[in-house]
Write a structure and sequence with these properties.
The protein is mainly α. It has 10 helices and 2 strands. It has one domain (73-310). Helices cover 65% and strands 2% of the residues. A two-stranded antiparallel ribbon has the order 1-2. Strand 1 (136-138) and strand 2 form a beta hairpin. The radius of gyration is 45 Å and the shape is globular.
């Protein structure tokens, strides 16, 4: 065998493989103001955001102010309705209070008669050019209205004072007429109480309606009326009558003290022509007579056990 050199063939040399380095990320250049971002929305700088927030706050303030003035306007428009609600609310409270003693039907009729009486004052005050409030009811004390004055002079005050008993007498007379036509003791009883309350209001002492009439007739009658009230209180002790006596005494003292000043204003207020004084006197006496007759005709209570709650 031939002796030959054995050699391992070598592979041709392969140059080393080199991978290119990845490119560095490019640094984005600052976008100019007003340019769009990747989603197509315009970029806003810091100044635009502040303006937007300030605009939103201003819009919210304007809306709040508008709502506030709208609420005030609504409240002003609702004032007449609020007065009606006050009248209705106090009337319902009075009905509930009177119903505890006299029953619901009589209580409702009684409050209606009080309303009719007070509306006489309201109507006459408006005829005198004086704005008057709607009647408000006070349980067991009747009803009341408020006005800035009772007229320019004693004659106007007398007209306002007598207007309540005039309309109240008509209201009681209507109850009596319907009661007689339907043979209703309930309506007769309401008429009786209506006549009595209007007659009581004609006592010649302020602040009762009769005292208003005496301002134009004979103010010295206030002391006579006050004496009658005191005598009634001694004969029939009653807390409501006591309240009337206290207020009557204070009002009589105040009015008489003002008259004692002998000022020109007071002299002008109580200056009434004899003809007008006579007319006021005739209306006053006529009302007293009619109310007394009405009480006589409408009387349904007796020792037989009748009561308002059972009628």
């Amino acid at each position: 065998m031939d002796n030959q050199d054995l050699s391992i063939p070598t592979l041709p040399s392969v140059p080393p493989v080199t991978r290119p380095a990845p490119p560095l990320p490019a640094v984005p250049a600052a976008a100019p103001e007003g340019a769009e971002d990747a989603f197509g929305a315009p970029r806003r700088g810091p100044a635009g955001g502040i303006r937007k927030r300030l605009g939103s706050v201003a819009a919210a303030i304007v809306a709040a102010v508008a709502k506030f003035f709208a609420a005030i306007k609504g409240a002003i428009l609702l004032l007449p309705k609020a007065k009606l609600l006050t009248t209705a609310g106090t009337a319902l409270v009075s009905v509930a209070a009177y119903a505890l003693f006299w029953g619901w039907t009589f209580a409702v009729g009684f409050v209606v008669l009080l309303f009719v009486h007070e509306m006489g004052h309201v109507v006459q005050l408006r005829r005198e050019g004086i704005k008057a409030s709607a009647p408000m009811f006070v349980p067991f004390l009747g009803a009341m209205i408020s006005a800035r004055s009772l007229g320019e002079n004693a004659l106007a005050e007398a007209r306002v004072g007598l207007a309540g008993p005039v309309l109240g007498t008509l209201g009681a007379a209507v109850c009596l007429a319907i009661g007689e036509a339907t043979n209703s003791d309930l309506l007769r009883a309401l008429a009786y109480v209506g006549f009595f309350l209007n007659l009581f209001n004609l006592l010649p002492v302020v602040p009762l309606d009769g005292g208003r009439a005496m301002a134009a007739m004979a103010p010295w009658m206030w002391f006579l009326g006050f004496g009658v009230l005191v005598a009634m209180l001694l004969l029939v002790p009653n807390p409501i009558l006591l309240i009337i006596v206290v207020f009557g005494g204070l009002e009589t003292y105040r009015r008489w003290k003002l008259r004692g000043n002998r000022s020109l204003e007071q002299a002008a207020y109580y200056r009434v022509r004899p003809r007008h004084r006579l007319i006021v006197g005739c209306v006053y006496v006529g009302l007293v007579v009619l109310l007394a007759l009405g009480m006589h005709e409408a009387h349904v209570l007796s020792s037989g056990g009748h009561s308002f709650s059972s009628i």
